Amino acid sequence: MNRVQLVVAMAVAAAVRSPGQALADLRVLTTESRQYERVELGWRPERAPANPFDPNVAALDAWVEYPPGRKAAVPGFWFQGYERSLKDAKAVGKERVEVLRGTGAPEWRVRFSSGETGVHRVTLVLREAGAERRSEAAEVRIRPGKSGGFVRVSRRNPQFMEDDSGKSFFPIGENLCMYEKREGTYYFDRLLAKLAAAGGNYVRLWQEYYVPKELGTVAGPGDGSFAGFPLETQVTGLGRYDLESAWRLDYVAGLAEKLGVRWQLCFEMVVWWQQRQEHRWSRNPYNAANGGPVVKPADYLTDERARELVKRRLRYSVARWGWSTHLAAWELWNEVDNLEGFTSQANVAWHREMAQYLKQADPFGHLVTTSWRDPGMFALPEIDIVQGHSYFGSEIDAAEYTMEDSDHLMRRFGKPFFFGEQGIDGDWAADPEGKHFHDCLWASAVSGAAGSGLYWWWHNYVETNGLYRHYKALAKFVEGVDWPGRDWRAVRLSRPNLPVSLKAYGVTGRDRALVWLHDPLAFRIVEGKGVRGPAQAKASVNVVGLEDGEYAIEWRDTTTGAVVRVDLGKVDHMRHFGYGLEMRAPEFWGDVAARVLRRGAGWGLGLARGLKQADTGEEQPMGLRAEPSR
Fold first, then answer.
1. What is the secondary structure of 170-235 as a DSSP string?
2. What sign has the CA pseudo-torsion 554, 559, 561, 565?
3. 75 in helix, strand or coil?
4. Each residue of 239-259: pLDDT tens digit?
5. What confidence category does residue 3 fall into, taking pLDDT thresholds of 50, 70 and 90?
6. Tag placement on the chain: N or C end, fewer CB within 10 Å?
7. 3-state DSSP call for residue 586?
8. For 473-484, what is each residue's pLDDT tens digit?
C-alpha cells in the first residue's frame, strides 16, 4: 500500500471505529457482479456539500474488504444521472443533436472492480466540516468472470503489455479525442462500433477545457464545436466540474467495454496553453484573466494552487473511471513540449509529482503515460509508457519515416512504446483509398513497438473515406501473437532479391518472424495527385537470425487479411552457410506480409489450429500440402 492510500486508509479505518452519526440509506446499486466488472454504491446526503469536488470540503471514501483479507481505500465522487435523447429523432449522422435530461438528485457514488471472487464488504466514510461519518458494511458478491483484468507492463518483457492474466495486449486503434459537441455520445455509437467491427481495440480520448466561443450558447457547426470530455471549464469555474460531460464519458466507457475497446484518457492539451490559440487560452479556466492562478502558460507547471487543483481532478477521475479494466492508461499531457515557455526541468518535476500522485491515489494501478518528446519525463520510473507523435508530408515514404521516427524512442527507455498520434499533413484528397494510412498502421505494427500507431485524422479522413477496413487485415495478422513471449529483434536479411525500391521490415524472435515487404513507389503523391506504380512479381528475401528447423511461411494479403499462400522452408546453418530462411513472395501491389513459424515451436501466433491453404480454404496442419521453397 502506498503513502497516499495508507493515509486515506488510516482515516477511513479511524472513522469506521468512531461512534459518529451513521450514513443511513446506503444503496448497493450492484448487488452481484463478475470479476473485473463494475460495482457501484450510492449515498444521497440530506444536503449537497458546499463544494463536493474539493476533498478539503467534503470527501467520501470506501473501505473495501476483499475475500482474501486484503483491504483498500477507494475514493468516491459526486454524481448526477442523465438520460439522453435526440432533439430530432429523424436526424441522422452529424445532423443529430443530443439532449441530456437530469434524472434524480445529485449524490455520492463509489465504483470499484475486483479480480477476486466471493463476498466483498464495503463501508463508506464521509469526512465533512471536521466530522467523520460511516455506513454499515454492505456486502457485494462477485462471481467468476471471463475478463483478463487490467493492462500492465509485461512481467516477461517490459517493452510490451499484457493483462492481469498474462495475456498479451497490442493496441490497434485511433484517436477519438474530440467529438461533434452537438451529436454527443451518439458520435461514439457510430465510430466506436466501426472501429471494433474492424478489429480495432484502442482509442485515445481527451478531457480538455472546451466551452463554446460564446459562453452559454449551444455548440453548432463551424464554431469550433469539437470537444473532449472537459471537467473544469470557464463556465464551471476552477475546482468545479461539468457533470454532463462526466456522464458522457461514463457512457463512452460503458460502450467501449461492451465493444471490447480499451482507451486512454489524456488530461492536458497543449493548445489550451498557447497564447496564440486565442479561442483557447482566452477561455482557459486557469488563465488569470478568468480568475485562475496562471498569468502565463508556463506558470501552470510550477504554480502551487494550479498543481493542487490538478490533483483534485486526478482524484475525481480515478474515483469515477478507475474501476474500468478497459481504461488502459492515464495520459498526463498531450505534446507538453509545445507549451509556451517550456523548460525540461519544470516539466520533469511536474510529471514526477503528478505521476506519483496518480499511482498513490489509484488503487487499481493503471499505467501512466504522457507525450511528446522530452526524454527527461520518459526516463521517470513513474512513467510506464513512452508515447511519441509522428507527422510527415504526403511526399514522404510513410513506412521508412515511421521506422526512423520510432527507433530512437523505442529502445532507449526499455518501456512499451507506441505512437499516440500519427498521420500525414494534408493532400488527403489525393489518397482516398488510404494508402498512406495503411502504411502507417503496418509499419508501426511491425517496428517492434508495443502497439500500432494511433492515427489522428479520424474525423475528416478515416471515417469520411470509409477506411476502417484497413484495421481488419492488420488485426488478423497479429492475432494470437504473444508479444511479451519473445525478445523480438529487427528483421535482418542476406542475399535479398528485391527491386531497388522494395524494402523489408519486421521482427524475428528465434523461432518465428513477422515480415512486411513494402514498395514505396507503388503509390506516391506528386504535386497533389496520386501516382500508382506497378505490381511486384519476383521479390524474395533471406531472413537470418532464426534457429535451425522447418518453417511455415504464411503469406497474407494486407488489404483483406486473407492467407494467399503457405510455403515451407528450412534453416540449416551447416548447409545454407548462414543465409537464413528463403522467402519468395507472391505477386503483390504495394505490400505483402508473412507470418513465419518453426515447426514444433508452440506457435503462439494464432496458428495452432493449423494453416489454411489458399486454394482450398481447408485447415492444414503444419507441413502438409504447403508449397516448399527451393
1. ---EEE---EETTTTTHHHHHHHHHHHHTT--EEEEE------SSTTSPP-TTS--EE---SS-TT
2. negative
3. strand
4. 999 999 999 999 999 999 999
5. very low
6. C
7. coil
8. 999 999 999 999
In order of start, what are the domains of the chain with their CATH numbers? 3-143 (2.60.40.10), 151-253+263-296+331-341+368-469 (3.20.20), 489-628 (2.60.40.1180)
Model confidence at 605: pLDDT above 80:
no
Q: Which three cell numbers stand for residue 508?
A: 524475428
Indicate the SS3 state at residue 247: helix
Question: What are the residues facing 32 on neighbouring strands?
Answer: 141
Among residues 437, 411, 407, the alpha carbon closest in space to that of 425 is found at 437
Residue 279 Cα distances to 48, 217, 229, 336, 542, angstroms:
34, 15, 18, 19, 56
Q: Please report how many Cα atoms fall inside a 13 Å half-sphere around the Cα of residue 422, on the Cβ side.
A: 31
For 244-256, letters b (16+ CB in 10 Å) and e give bbbbbbbbbbebb
* Burial grade of 93 (CB within 10 A; 0-12, 13-18, 19 or more): exposed
How many Å is the maximal CA-CA distance in the chain? 84
The amino acid sitting at 602 is: G
CA dihedral of residues 83, 251, 205, 386 (deg, nearest 10): 150
Q: State mean pLDDT over 73-79.
A: 99
What average pLDDT does the segment 563-574 reach? 92
The alpha carbon torsion through 533, 534, 539, 545 (nearest 10 deg) reads 20
Pairing of strands 417-425, 385-393: parallel
In a 13 Å sphere around the CA of 598, the CA atoms on its Cβ side amount to: 19
Question: What residues does 417 pair with on adjacent strands?
Answer: 386
Grid cell digits, residue 334: 498531450
Measured CA distances, 527 to 333, 389, 430, 524 (Å): 36, 26, 10, 10
User: Cell for 194?
Assistant: 466501426
pTM: 0.91
The 10 Å CB-count burial string (b at 16+, else e) for 299-327 is: bbbebeebbebbbbbbbbbbbbbbbbbbb
User: What does 395-413 look like in DSSP terms, one character per residue?
Assistant: TS-HHHHHHHHHHHHHTTS
Backbone angles phi, psi at 360, to 5 degrees: -80, -35
Q: Where are the alpha helices (DSSP H) in 362-434?
A: 375-378, 398-410
